[in-house]
Design goal:
This protein has twelve helices and 18 strands. It has 462 residues and is an alpha+beta fold. The strands form five sheets. A six-stranded mixed beta sheet has the order 1-2-6-3-7-17, with helices on both faces. A four-stranded antiparallel beta sheet has the order 11-13-9-14. The longest helix has 21 residues.
Length: 462
């Protein structure tokens, strides 16, 4: 495309400044104390989309946080790309582990990002990646090179399960009609190993509560004579995996798609160093399901993990007590074909079944979604591959990711279109963790690659 790299190098400081301004607003969707900031971020996104050249931009109200919708329709006969992203971010906790405040972005060099990385909550997930699309749009629109129609749908509830987006999509088929959905909310293998995400895992998230006696008890007077909910909960959780780290819930694996040896061999070709992986995490060994490699364990296999566990006395010093209740939050990452609602039911039945006499168990489902796989012979994938070949000088590898964007399978069901996941983050960018960051090089590379996707997608659609 004419003057693409020139435009980026000319405007890169402004591109960074604008992103930094957006990152300063703490749009934490999970915490209602930040409601005003989340709404302010939606307004900011609206303004940026208008400035980038969208003809119609609106804030669409939902029962929760609004969806920012923008479009530029240049010719109804041309294909339409629907860009999805999210402007909300994860809570920054634990705050004391950040080297600089999460909502005061700074640029620092790292080993993986010698050209600098922006440190802030949301830098990579997903404000930075979402904003690449806004800047790519600015380039195409201001230089009269937008080759097709474009629609933007940027939501504010992704990090809390996209609870209201489903309804919005169901009620707006015509408005959201498109030929392909484009999302940058995933990662790639390495800056010199570009990859396109071809799969996402599904998710079932539940909370469990174990109740023993009707009040907290003296652990000397009652200890040994009644069920201790924390002991019981620990035992129940431990029993959810067997000695091979297989999940023991009956029926859990029934729908799991088994990859052929050929597909597994293809996956194993992606460069990966177990030594570096362990070193980066300060662990002396990896751990997981027998019979599968690390990369298989974290992408094509389902998992069950405790995300949080609490109960009893956790303050300073010691208190001798048997708590009345114990709790845990548990996530199950699912693979394509596993139905998240069915898995939630299987979990609930099993967890209730394994509770011993003397305790009561309550299982509360939170949210979930289906996994996703996309074929690599589609026009969308081919267009993305060509775009990467141009900007990275290499053919990108298809890669299945372990993360989840549950709304993607709903897009396919409701809008009947495929999603292309062009993620530019690295696994080491610490999304959801303290010190989240996004490489400056990655940010600019994304802005450079996106317009070429538009170009190739339009050409391949002819
Ligand atoms: N952007 C992530 C998902 C992601 C990250 C997918 C990296 C692949 C690679 C998204 O914002 C996210 O955090 N999703 C949640 C699920 C959601 C229902 C809260 C997740 O994966 O935990
Ligand atoms: Mn995200
Ligand atoms: Mn996220």
């Amino acid at each position: 495309m004419e003057k693409l790299t020139q435009y980026i190098s000319q405007h890169k400081d402004r591109f960074l400044d604008e992103l930094i301004e957006l990152l300063k607003i703490p749009s934490i969707s999970a915490d209602s104390a930040y409601k005003t900031d989340v709404l302010k971020t939606a307004d900011a996104v609206k303004t940026r989309l208008e400035k980038a050249g969208c003809d119609k931009v609106e804030i669409c109200q939902t029962d929760g946080y609004p969806i920012v919708y923008g479009e530029k329709i240049i010719n109804k006969k041309l294909p339409t790309i629907l860009v999805y992203g999210h402007y909300d971010v994860q809570p920054p906790d634990p705050i004391n582990l950040w080297h600089s405040p999460p909502f005061e972005p700074v640029i620092k060099n790292t080993e993986k990002h010698p050209e600098g990385a922006i440190f802030a909550r949301g830098a990579c997930d997903d404000k930075g990646q979402m904003y690449m699309h806004v800047k790519a749009m600015e380039f195409m629109s201001s230089t009269n090179q937008l080759p097709c129609n474009v629609k933007f749908m940027i939501e504010g509830e992704e990090e809390v399960g996209s609870v209201n987006l489903g309804t919005f999509v169901k009620n707006n088929h015509e408005k959201l009609k498109n030929d392909v959905i484009l999302i940058s909310d995933t990662g790639m293998i390495a800056n010199d190993v570009p990859s396109i995400t071809t799969g996402l895992r599904g998710l079932s998230y539940v909370e469990v509560e174990v109740t023993g006696p009707n009040r907290d008890l003296h652990s000397g007077l009652y200890g040994g004579a009644v069920a201790n909910p924390i002991n019981i909960l620990s035992k129940m959780i431990a029993s959810l995996h067997d000695e091979n780290n297989h999940i023991t819930i009956p029926g859990f694996y029934d729908q799991v798609e088994e990859l052929s040896e050929a597909e597994r061999a293809e996956m194993a070709k992606a460069p990966f160093s177990l030594e570096n992986y362990k070193k980066a995490l300060d662990i002396d060994a990896v751990y997981g399901e027998s019979g599968y490699s690390t990369n298989e364990r974290n992408s094509i296999r389902p998992t069950l993990d405790v995300n949080g566990i609490w109960g009893g006395y956790t303050g300073e010093g010691a208190k001798t007590v048997i708590a009345s209740k114990a709790y845990a939050k548990i996530s199950m990452r699912l693979v394509p074909n596993q139905d998240w609602e069915n898995i939630t039911k299987l979990f609930k039945t099993h967890f209730e079944n394994i509770a011993p006499k003397g305790v009561k168990v309550k299982v509360t489902p939170h949210h979930g979604g289906q996994g996703y796989v996309t074929p690599i012979d589609s026009i969308g994938y081919q267009a993305a591959s060509k775009a990467y070949q141009h900007t990275f000088g290499k053919t990108p590898l298809p890669q299945r990711s372990g993360g989840s964007i549950p709304i993607v399978s709903l897009f396919e069901k409701e809008l009947k279109s495929k999603t292309i996941l062009m993620g530019f983050g690295l696994d080491s960018d610490a999304i959801h963790s303290p010190n989240e960051h996004f490489g400056v090089w990655n940010y600019l590379k994304g802005i450079e690659t996106i317009p070429l996707f538009y170009k190739h997608f339009t050409e391949l659609s002819k």
